[in-house]
User: What shape does this take?
Amino acid sequence: MLEVASTPMVLVAILGTVGVLLPLLGIAYKGRDNTATNNLFATISFAALAVSMGYIGYQFVDGNIAASALFSDEVMSDDAFGAFFAIALLIVALFTVSGSFAYMKKHENASPAVYYSLILLATIGMVLVAYSTDLVMLFVAWELMSIPTYVLVGFMKKNPSSNEAALKYFLFGALSSAIIIYGISLSYGLTGSTNIGDVIEGYANLDPAMMPLALLSVGMLIAGFGFKMGLVPFHQWLPDTYEGAPAPITTLLAAATKKAGFAAAIRIVVMGAVALNTDWTLALGILAVMTMTVGNVAAIMQKNLSRMLAYSSIAHAGYILIGLAVAPHSHLGLQGSLYQIFNHAVMKGAAFIAVAGIVVALAVTHIDKLAGLGRRMPITSLGLVISLFALAGVPPLSGFWSKLMLFGGALDASGTLWWAPWLAIAGVLNSALSLAYYGWITRKMYFEGETQKRVAEPRPVIAVMIFSILFLVGFGVYPEPLLQFIEIATPIIPGM
Amino acid sequence: MAAESAILPMFDPIPAGAWLVWAIPFAAALIMPAIGRLSHRVTGFAAVGFALMSALSAFSLLPMALAGGEVHEQIMWIEAIGLKAGVLADPLSVIMANVVAWISFLIMIYSTGYMKGDRNVVRFWFWMLFFIGSMQLIVLSDNLLQVFFGWEGVGLASYALISFWYQDKKKDHVGQSNRRVLGLMDYYAPTHAGMKAFIMTKVGDVMMIAGMLLIFLFAGTFGFRELVGDTAWAVEMSAQGLLVPAFVLLFGGAIGKSAQFPLNEWLLEAMTGPTAVSALIHAATMVKAGVFLVARIGPIVFALGAAGILADQFFEIVAWVGAITALLLATQGMTNPEIKKVLAYSTGSQIGYMMMALGVAGLSHQYVDGYTAGFFHLISHAMFKASLFMAAGSLLHVVGSRFMTDMGGLRKHMKKTYMFMWAAGLGLMGAPFITTGFWSKDAIFAAVYESGTEWALPLYAIAVLTAVITAFYTTRMIGMVFFGPKSKHVQKMESEGHPPHEASVSMWVPYGILAALTIGIGLIGLSAEEGLHHLFEVYLDESFGIHYGVSYGTAGEDGSSILPEFLQGLNPVALGSSLAAFAVGIGLGYIFYIGRLVDPVRFVNSNLFFYAIHKVILNRWYLNAIIYWCFVVAPLWLARGVFRYFERTAIDYGMNDGLQKAAGWGARVVQGTQTGVSQSYLFVFGAGLLFVVLILLM
Assistant: This one.
């Protein structure tokens, strides 16, 4: 049995308690001034998330976190890999809550207590996905993450596009959950266990006649997780949902739940690929190229900033997938993926929070309406531009190093994997292509439009922007601490 | 007392001097703009003072070096790859450093007069000091990489000084605006000339750095001493056939800097710089850097050869490049009407002599003979050429024209300059027994003659022929400037009330000193040469293990010599040739230009053969025009073509517009699949799942 004091359990305790108590508080405060209650609940949520973050930090300093373990006998493993994802996910959750401060004030008819409660519950789900080492535990955590987000996407009840977004998201979420559980049941049938370590060991000693079934179950898991990661061709719900969802929730979806999908994929698919010693990774390679190309090409012509960023986040799933695809052949692969996951959480989180700030202040998301934004909302614009350039991988921002490591990993693997260099080439070409639309937004904001008066920028948004700028520039110029953290967090693949 | 000396760091003047020789000019260059802020007039004195300090630093090393001593100091430069910086003050570099330092010092004094009244004088002093510092860095470095830094510094300074008068006024051009060679103008502006020098020498520099890195790849060091210490690298390189190419690439750098064939053409246009700059380039810095580099690496190559790792082709190439340059440029000195260009051709030609000697040295059994001859010629040439250039600068200053046809009959007006030019000119011609030029040239003749290589005879013939031509063009120059009737230009000056006059004291004293030294050292030339020879014998033996075997000269070999007592030790054939060459050259020159017995113009036009030769030579053997056609005109033409037919079409329309259109098209296709209808999404999702499973099952 897992220790009560282990990190995931403590996180469940902190976030779960607050998450459950918030709606009760909401009932108690019913009828009071909406702005004040919103601020109160947001502050409580923020504090709960910050305490959780602090606890992980404390565990690290105290040396209580085990080295990245691939598998464990328990349902969860209190290791550095889980902690790494937990930190990245908590940062995004903090971004989301900060963005919601301002956003929820605008929508007074919504119930803030439920809103923040759902954010916290979804956060628990994501964190537990990263810690899970058992398929059933993983699935439970997956649903705990998914179900609150279905509600959050459709939180603006009177807004038809929010409703459409929620419906599509739910439809595909249900489908992918079904597929995942089907994959899990197949693997349980083949190996008689739901512990990931046992399953993979069972696969390694599988009767060859059963192999197609094993592969089918793996394919189902890839498709199921691929839905959350936004891999092409499981991506089509994503732009519609991101565009329709409340802007802070989009942040949570794009920057956080996507990462939970990767955490699950790394625990199961990549480790499994190594254990089975088969060439599954070609499927991931093909998906990677498709994903980044479709994402970037579609983003070019978008007129809506949210939608453009949605496609951009599809493309980024493709970059991250490069690392997974070459992981069995180069130790840089997984490290690059983790690095990119962490960076992307901050970059994309900041970009969507900037959108939320723009929506709050100006109520626009159309790109043509952004003309002259550099003067109207200078800090938000600067944060957005830095995030966009970091997404494009422009040195010396943090995003440059993670892309360098990913493409370097692909080249590094070329000795044993003939198609690996093509991943790097596709990645570089796609990065160049992506600059077309990142640059376009930048031009709109800074080089077009007449001089207009400066508008008030929401203060929580400013805080997120400043944090992101410091993070992206700071770790871009001096990436060493982050690199060390990633090195600790990256699981060592057996046989490498 | 012991405790005291432990606390006070020991100050040893000798190694400190070796660093200061080049550190002082660099530091002085940096503070020159600050001094210029205070006063423009002071800058000249300050610059001369710093040059003197550098020269004294060099001088402090001289006793140690003449006693055969050596200082080699190193400090860590780039720890990660074990790179060291250092100074190497051995006899070779110390003598060279003194030649450079003292001649630069005299040129700096001359410059205070020459540059008087120039508004940009601070810039001038900055680059002059930078030039000297870079040259001394080359001379005193203990490794190739550090040499290369100085090498590039010299190139940069030469660029800045050749195009010093960057406003490209008509009087600062060189060449004649109305002459065309193969359809190209033979007329160059200072900025063009600076660029030309920079780019042409850069061709050599690139070769040099390639050679350096090639050697570093095998040896793991740039150090001269380290390269000699362990020769395993050379065995490895030789086995792969890379040893000779590497050394020849290094020599490529020397070809560029020393204006040797085929990179010789920049030297003529370099005359657009102030004459003091020309003197510095031709006597002390820049062109001598190439010779010095060959003198630096030559013993290494020869020592490798002595150890059985042969690289004779290197020496053959050096000798032949030198010989071709010597003759090619000497011929052009006979025809050019501009006094500074005549001297420039002469420099290239004399450098060719030095290269020939250093090359032949490696092909003979007595390496030290050719080595001493080449280096001795470098010293004597530095003195008389600096003197000649400064005197020519005075003429330009006084007459206001660079053409000798605008001078004539000046000997009464400029007595001192006339006298000094004769003295230095005799040095260049190799006037027997009294000038340094005679002894050094004779030593080269002897070294070539006695080398015993298969090439000895043709090289020797070229050397003697070049000596005849040298004596002729020098006499021609002096004759055209100082003898004969006054030119229309001079008559006009007199009629306007400005007759030519002697140059100022600060100008004639420096070249007077050097002219006097040319004769003065010439009188004791033989013993000076033997002293140098002995010094190098010991130096080459101790530092490179090149032993001096048989006794020096033919006299010792057969025990009897037909020469009188005071000429014992000389090769009679070489002596005879140099006497004859001098006599023939000066005689012909006298007939045409001093005695004016035959009109040279009519003589050339009298005969189609002479006319053709004259034309080819005057057109610089068409070498310059061919280089321009191949490397300037053709690439420009090609670039325009590429711009019009490739950039405008393939890049602008094809790539820029095409990519944009393709991306837009792709985006519309992808958007087309994004229908917004959930049923179609579900279909794609299902198809995707099937696709993934199929890939896995494959």
